[in-house]
Structures are given as C-alpha cells and as structure tokens.
Write a structure and sequence with these properties.
alpha/beta; D-Maltodextrin-Binding Protein, domain 2; 2 domains; 5-stranded mixed beta sheet; 11 strands; globular
C-alpha cells in the first residue's frame, strides 16, 4: 500500500509538472479590478507584454472596475480555475475592501491564491497649482484653518490611498471630505480639473507634476523621490505612522493547479529583475517588489487582512 501511495504521488507530481510546462496553452485573460490609467493597469500591461513574449501566448488585460473590486473578482472567478483567467489587483482590494463591503458570497482571501506581489508604491500628496499652498506646512495650516471644507479623491472606498489619507488626517489633525472614484485615473482627472483639492496619488500623477499641471507637497513612503529631492516624506516632516498600503500582485482562482501557480510565480519573478521593467515601474512611481514564494505572499495577505480588520474601525473608515 505504501508503494502504491508513493507511486500515486509521483504520478500526480509528474502530471502537475507537465501541466505547468504546457501552460499557457491558450491566451490568458488577466482581470484588473480597477479602471484603466491607474498604477495597477499600467504595471499589469508592462508585465503582460513581457509574459506574452516569454510564454508565447497573449496576456489580455480586461479592466473590470467598480464594486470596491468585486466586479473584477466576479469576472475572474467565472469559468474553470485552469490558469487561463487570472486576477491582478491592488492589495487594498484583497486585504482592506472585504472588511468594508462584507459580501457573504465572495471572500477574496479564500477565493484566490496569492501568486506573487509585483509593485509597491509610495503615495504622493499632490494639489492643483491653484491650491493656496506651496509646501506641506502651508497645506496643513490651510487644512486646519478650514476644517471639513477640503475634499480629496481616492481610487475608491477602502483603497490604500483612502486608508492612508484617513491616517494622514488623523495624525496631522485636520478633517476633509472623501470623494471615491473607480480608480486612480478618474481621481487624477478631477484633481487636474480642480474639482477636488488634493490627492494621495499612487504615482500616475507624477508626469503631470513634471509638466507643471500639479504640485507635489510630500511623499508617503520610506524615502524621497530621486526626481524631487527637495520634497520631504511625511515621516521626516513629523507626521508619523502613515504608510502607502499593501502591494499590487497576481492572484489565481482557488483550485488553480499548484504547478501553474508556481510557474507564474517564477516567470514574473524573473521579469521583475529586469532593469527595463524596474525603470518602467519607477516612471509610474512604484518599485518592483523583491520576489517571494506563493506561500510567503499568502502568509502576508492573511496577516495584513487581520491588521486592517482592526485598523479600519479605529479610523472610522466605513462603507
């Protein structure tokens, strides 16, 4: 019996290895659960082009925004878990939004296998040039002098920029009104039109900063941006405890072959080491994440989900 069991395990292992080598046998749909134009969309398209080159099949990006990420979840979970439909998502959709939406039909932590994190961004406090502040100190003075009068956009309720802005306002002692959008791109568009007052932008607005259409006042992250060495981080400016949230990453529907998950992990890990990819990410204001195994990424996702379950009520972040 023991020899029979060992033979069965060996056969399953060989079958999994064969499936991984054959994958992908057809074009791969990658559901991005936020709107086009944001960091998730941009970084996925960069990675998708390289994956297609390396694996010989197109990686077709489909933006399914809305529903706090759940429209994308639903699209990614339709059909068989054969590795030909994947999810690419901001970490906030997986680890933060479920504590706000609380849908009983889909728990993304259980419905998806974390494959690999890809990009970790800082957030950038940006304003329209017409806003009456040229630095962080002036911004805070104006915000405190007009409690509840300013408004800010985010890529959506419960996203990392939303939580970070709630932390920022709490720690810096000012209040402002939240306006959720369906992605970083639409939020940026309204700031450019001076519809909103400020934004913790995930990086898509940096070209507009360079072009003089936006003003950069501070950075939520561990270091200053090399292109803006005079712009301080919140931490060094005395605003402590604000972070940019969990990374973007690939997820596969639960039930997807372990061999396919591991192969996708290896392929993406190789691409993330390429200087051209890291440079392209930097243009979008994010850093390529150092590769980890699916097991390590899964443990991180579960731990962060538990952290936000406690943090969100403290901040008053609700649906």
């Amino acid at each position: 019996m023991s020899r029979l069991f060992a033979a069965m395990l060996a056969a399953l292992s060989l079958a999994g290895a064969a499936q991984a080598q054959q994958w992908p046998s057809a074009p791969v749909r990658v559901i991005v659960n936020v709107a086009a134009g944001g960091v998730a969309d941009v970084t996925m398209r960069v990675l998708g082009a390289r994956l297609a080159e390396n694996l010989g099949q197109p990686f077709i990006v489909e933006n399914r925004a809305g529903g706090d990420g759940y429209i994308g979840f639903e699209a990614a979970l339709r059909g068989e878990p054969d590795g030909l439909t994947l999810l690419y998502s901001p970490g906030s959709s997986i680890m933060i939004s479920p504590h706000l939406v609380k849908r009983s039909d889909i728990d993304p932590v259980k419905a998806f296998i974390p494959v690999i994190p890809t990009a970790q961004g800082s957030l950038y406090l940006v304003t329209h040039p017409a806003f009456p502040a040229t630095n962080l100190a002036e911004f805070l003075a104006h915000a405190r002098a007009h409690p509840g009068k300013l408004n800010y956009g985010t890529p959506g309720n419960g996203t990392s920029p939303h939580v970070a802005t709630a932390l920022f306002s709490r720690e810096a002692k000012f209040t402002a009104q939240h306006i959720p959008y369906k992605g970083a791109g639409p939020a940026l568009k309204d700031l450019l039109g001076a519809v909103t007052d400020f934004l913790l932008d995930p990086g898509v607005g940096l070209p507009q900063v360079k072009g003089g259409k936006l003003r950069l006042l501070a950075i939520v992250g561990p270091k200053r941006h090399p292109d803006y060495p005079s712009v301080p981080t919140l931490e060094e400016s005395g605003v402590k405890g604000v972070d940019s949230g969990p990374p973007f990453g690939f997820y596969a529907p639960t039930g997807t072959s372990r061999a396919v998950v591991e192969r996708l992990n290896r392929e993406v890990a190789k691409i993330l080491q390429e200087p051209a990819i890291r440079e392209r990410f930097a243009i979008s204001g994010v850093d390529a994440v150092e590769p980890v195994t699916p097991e390590a990424f899964g443990a991180y996702v579960r731990a962060q989900s538990e952290r936000y379950a406690k943090l969100l009520p403290e901040l008053g972040v609700t649906q």
